[in-house]
Design a protein that fits this description.
Blueprint (H helix, E strand, L loop, with lengths): L2 H25 L4 H8 L11 E2 L6 E7 L4 H16 L4 E7 L6 H12 L4 H10 L1 H4 L21 H7 L3 H16 L7 E4 L2 E2 L5 H16 L2
């Protein structure tokens, strides 16, 4: 057998092995995303993650958010409406996925506001005024400060704290977890560890409703 023939045989064998492995994998169930979320719970929620809602709430919604993402701003208020309609039954956990260039600096502002106990008011103020400080989907930190006035924040301290190394580590960790969970766009949601089967608010609400119904049956 010459080298060319040997090479063709080796490639053919490898292709057969790959095909068999792929067939077995899918035969064992599901697409890759749910399996990633199911087996890597540590990447889903971190101790540093901002949360709202009762700690023992039976339904946990994890959202990967980019404060400069227009859809994130729209979905955030609607998720809060679902939470209000189901008091004490849903906990929202935020993870950062600042995919827009410069959005990581806005996240740093939010984390610095968090040091003053003003994370949620700051987040809601920035989501509500997103068009002002992120014109044409280009986040500009210099434009966020005015949007944070009136929240009782020491803005000079926020400017200093946003450069803290621990904030950079939080952002890096969240981005690393986003990659592990195959999060490529925002907002992305996981409800009790299950990812959205397809993107859309109706799909998200259905997933939350199913989780609520399931926990009621327990």
């Amino acid at each position: 057998m010459n080298k060319k023939t040997l090479f063709i045989v080796v490639v053919a064998v490898l292709l057969v092995i790959f095909a068999a492995g792929t067939t077995f994998y899918y035969a064992m169930g599901g697409d890759p995303a749910p399996k990633v979320a199911a087996i890597d719970r540590t990447a889903l929620i971190r101790v540093h993650s901002p949360t709202i809602g009762k700690a023992e709430a039976p339904v946990v919604v994890v959202e990967f958010i980019d404060p400069a993402c227009e859809t994130c701003a729209i979905f955030y208020s609607r998720v809060k409406e679902i939470m209000a309609a189901n008091p004490d039954r849903i906990r929202l956990v935020l993870r950062y996925a600042p995919f827009h260039t410069g959005s990581d600096k806005v996240v740093a502002v939010l984390e610095a506001a968090r040091k003053q106990g003003k994370f949620w008011p700051a987040l809601e103020a920035l989501l509500a005024s997103q068009a002002v400080w992120s014109p044409n989907h280009m986040p500009q930190v210099s434009l966020v400060w005015k949007q944070l006035e009136g929240l009782g924040l020491d803005l000079e301290k926020v400017r200093v704290d946003m450069a803290a190394p621990e904030i950079a580590r939080v952002i890096a960790q969240d981005l690393d977890d986003a990659r592990k969970l195959n999060v490529t766009m925002t907002p992305e949601y996981f409800v009790n560890g299950k990812p959205l089967p397809s993107f859309g608010f109706d799909e998200l609400k259905t997933l939350i409703d199913e989780a609520l119904a399931e926990t009621k049956r327990r």
